[in-house]
């Protein structure tokens, strides 16, 4: 991790070593959305082939079933990571 990538803690706003612990956490959460059309096409092919998912996987198009909607990356100092539910920091930018 480069110097430009370091940021203050997303919870307390202090530097990541403010408590003297050299350990910090970078939390990355990726949110995906399902492509319902691709799923329906794959399910239809599986039904046509008698429920053989492996065969349908080989014979059908290799469509993405989901795509990335957003990505959240936050840095937390070790004390905040242990004390706080970090989920609400990662719900979207």
How many beta-strand elements? 2
Count of separate DSSP helical elements: 3
Report the radius of gyration as a whole number of Å.
21 Å
What would you call the structural class? alpha+beta
Provide the residue-averaged pLDDT: 83
Binned, the helix content reads 25-40%
Written account of the structure:
- With 93 residues, the chain is of the alpha+beta class.
- The longest helix is centred in the middle third of the chain and has 13 residues, at 36-48.
- The two termini are 22 Å apart.
- The chain has one domain (3-89).
- It has helices at residues 36-48, 53-59, 78-83; strands spanning 24-34, 66-77.
Task: Summarize the model shown.
By secondary structure, the chain is an alpha+beta fold. The chain is built from three helices and two strands.
Topology, element by element:
Blueprint: E1 24-34, H1 36-48, H2 53-59, E2 66-77, H3 78-83
Antiparallel strand pairs: 1-2
Helix pairs in contact: 1-2
Features:
93 residues, alpha+beta, two-stranded antiparallel sheet, 3 helices
